[in-house]
Amino acid sequence: MKQVTPAMEGVAVSARYGARTVLSGLDFVIPKGQMTVLLGPNGSGKTTLLHVLAATHPVAEGRLLRHHQRRPALVPQHSQVSDSFPITVRQTVAMGRWADRGPWRPTTRADKAVVAEALDQLGIADLAGRRLGMLSGGQRQRVLLAQALAQRSDVVLLDEPTAGLDVTSAERIHTHLARLRSRGVTIVQSTHEPEAAATADHRIHLGAPVSVGGQDFGPLSATHPRITGHCGVPTARRMGRPGSGLGCRSDQDRHCFSLWQAQL
Ligand SMILES: Nc1ncnc2c1ncn2[C@@H]1O[C@H](COP(=O)(O)OP(=O)(O)OP(=O)(O)O)[C@@H](O)[C@H]1O
Fold first, then answer.
1. Residues 145, 161 within the same domain
2. Ligand 1: which atom is nearest the Cα of residue 160?
3. Which of 54, 95, 118, 243 is most buried, by CB atoms within 10 Å?
4. What ipTM does this complex have?
């Protein structure tokens, strides 16, 4: 039976903006070294959850247990970066080193080597001297991913990394994410793309309740396709509290997810 090791575990996690609760009582697991996708309609809280995982947005209630080694690298949506921000591609990628050395320390030779390698890996070395705001969406997204690579974290969080990109640019990003995963990096990405969702190891659904066999689950649900078929334990008792914030897409997934949760 496949063992799943958690990189992070959320226990009844809530998050707010002022008095407004956006995430409420979420229980979830982010498996270590695997690809998790966050799914859900606009406004369901995917970006907010990514920021909670990145520790850039506070947990209002509940607990987030961390089992990873380094500060997560967060890749924002490319549309969130201002065109007028006067920064070059190399400087943007070098910011990824801040997690290690702080923003005010001079860049070391080792930092420069890491930045050069990240630029190279994403195929953007020729853009190093260009202004970030002058790049296309696809180029900019690769720069932001290079910044995350330069951080050398064991957890990479991405907010719709291929939104608005053409097929070739999106494939490049997917290829690099797959490479990171093969190196054991834990990846969490929000997406609206069915293909990214289908190929992920693990899916977390936010938003509208999911109906399974006439029973409603929501607002959070999770599946783990890799362990589908390894279970057979009647688990509805354990996890099927309607409205509890936990549920899965299919009966089989629901059983498996429960068993998997129970293994942790
Ligand atoms: N800074 C903020 N202040 C107040 N409310 C916010 C803020 N950021 C987001 N929200 C609200 O929180 C809710 C969740 O937003 P979030 O961006 O996390 O959703 P999302 O699932 O990522 O959406 P999308 O798919 O459109 O990117 C929305 O209703 C949004 O209006």
1. no
2. 27
3. 118
4. 0.98
